[in-house]
Amino acid sequence: TLEYSEVILGKYGKEADKMVYSFKDKGGRNLSLRYDQTVPTARVLAQYQNSLPKCFRRYQIQNVFRADKPQKGRYREFTQCDIDIFGSTSPIADAEIIACTYFAFKNIGYPKIILRINDRQTLFSSLKSFSTKTADVLSIIQTIDKLDKKDKLSVLQELIKKGLSSKNANAALAAVAGAALTPNLKQIIEQSKLLGVPNQAIEFTPNLARGLDYYTGMIFEVILPEYPLGSFGGGGRYDNLINKLSGYNIPAVGIAFGFDRMVEAADELNLIPKENTGAKVLVTIFEDPQPALAAAAVLRQKNINAEVFPAQDKIDKQLKYANRKGVNFVLMIGPDEAAKNMVTLKNMQTGKQKTITLDQATDVLAR
User: Which residues are involved in binding L-histidine (predicted)?
Assistant: First the structure.
């Protein structure tokens, strides 16, 4: 969870560094909460490189922290899932990460998956000539990375504010938009397809920048068109990060998914199976709970797994509760049913309901 601030800060860029939680501990040491898992893992690789195989694959699932403004799909603490390959500069390693990412999302069941892909080297070569004393090429890239979140005018204004002339700001955007696939990126895409990633899932996006400074080559991110809440994961090649920490050259490529955002999307797209609690019927509670409690006792005596809603509440809330928990039937005994010594049994799968005696309901539930 904690790293020395000198390990964390300065690796992501000025924009990302602002979202790192940093503080002094009781011993006066500068510490930071883990912003991502890439930099801490690079530190571990640098520390234990002689004990690890030359080509090392790893996955990690852990919480990370961002000093961000909480909103839908954005959290100050969330679970991040990482996969990385260390020790290989081959485009096959890049393709492996891309394919693993695609199939991880596909196997969850998302209806459409788009992998936006670009090459950081293309961005550097396209934008290097526009750097100024107040805006180096990394700063320009960080601003251009906002094109998918802000309109073009806002991005232009930010570039001008950083010191670019209006002419050069427009020229910088035009240079990025006109970029073509590099031979390296073409090879990565072709090998990704050979690994099973469909052609329609890969989208060359020349303005994609990935705001973190440590990327050096291929970069990509995951988009779910049916749930337009931004990127669900992002990554790429970061060949120089371990060198910055240790002086040793260990190339690396990887991806990080935001697990909480993935779950949120899967839930709203109805991809998560309803929880099976074991209860076959939910007995609802009205203002007078006595008929419901007595009915629950009868059902349990007949070995029918019955759950009683814990308090009187609106009937629609009780029905939603049953639906969320995957309970197949709901038994209702409101004032009208109680007056007639009857119950209403609702089948949550079909939506049909009928008013019958408790004995008849017991027979249905016992089947």
Answer: 36-38, 66, 80, 84, 210, 214-215
Predicted confidence at residue 334, as pLDDT, reads 93
Feature table: binding site:
36-38, 66, 80, 84, 210, 214-215
Whether 276 has a pLDDT exceeding 70, the answer reads: no
Q: Map residue 181 onto helix, strand or coil.
A: coil
Give the Cβ contact number of residue 165 at 10 Å: 12
What local confidence, expressed as pLDDT, does residue 101 receive? 97
Separation between Cα atoms, residue 238 and residue 219, nearest integer Å: 9
CA 79 to chain CA centroid, nearest Å = 8
Residue 169 token pair: 């700001």
Q: Which CATH superfamily is domain 34-268 in?
A: Bira Bifunctional Protein; Domain 2 (3.30.930.10)
| Residue 243 pLDDT > 70 | yes
Binding residues for L-histidine: 36-38, 66, 80, 84, 210, 214-215
Give the closest residue to 330 by CA, choosing from 302, 365, 301.
365
Of residues 168, 124, 118, the one with CA closest to residue 148: 118
Q: What is the pLDDT of residues 189-239, one digit of tens each?
A: 999 999 999 999 999 998 888 767 788 999 999 999 998 878 899 999 999
**178 DSSP 8-state letter:** T
In whole angstroms, give the CA distance from residue 25 to residue 259.
30
Residue 75's identity, in one-letter code, is: Y
Give the tokens for residue 85. Answer: 């390959």
Domain 281-366 in CATH 3.40.50.800? The answer is yes
Strand partners, 236: 219, 254
Q: What percentage of the chain reaches a pLDDT higher than 90?
A: 49
Q: Is 275 helix (H, G, I), strand (E, B) or coil?
A: coil
Placement of tokens 């081959």 in the chain: 90
pLDDT at 281 over 90: yes
DSSP string, 291-343: HHHHHHHHHHHTT--EEE-SS---HHHHHHHHHHHT-SEEEE--HHHHHHT-E
Rounded-to-integer distance, Cα 242 and Cα 39, Å: 8
